[in-house]
Amino acid sequence: MELQRAAYTQFIAPVLLVYGVLFIYPALSAFRLSLTDWDGISNHYNVIGLENYKEAIVAPEVLTASWRNTLNFITDRPGLGLDFTPDDFPE
After folding, report:
1. Largest Cα–Cα distance in the chain?
2. 36 — phi, psi (to 5°)?
3. What percent of the chain shows pLDDT beyond 70?
4. Digit-coded pLDDT (tens) for 23-53
5. DSSP readout, the chain?
6. Which of 10, 38, 60, 90 has the fewest CB atoms inside 10 Å of its own CB, making it the most exposed?
């Protein structure tokens, strides 16, 4: 039984490592950055906690824009998330 458990661990450990590096770490990093007022360019930022989330819920223009973008993405971009219309291509 111990030999089977060791064999399973040898197969599962690399998969969990790759999953953690490709999915868990970026998700946690994005959440950590969402708690700051970093502009994406400068080296300086302040930790402001949940103020970004509060603004996203309370500010009507932010809430409207986020709903519009979400619905636009869902309805206009099925499949690969690409939206090509005849107007996008020059004649």
Report:
1. 68
2. -120, 175
3. 82
4. 999 999 999 999 999 998 999 999 999 999 9
5. -HHHHHHHHHHHHHHHHHHIIIIIHHHHHHHHHHTB---SSSS---B-TTHHHHHHHH-HHHHHHHHHHHHHHHHH--TTT----GGGS--
6. 90
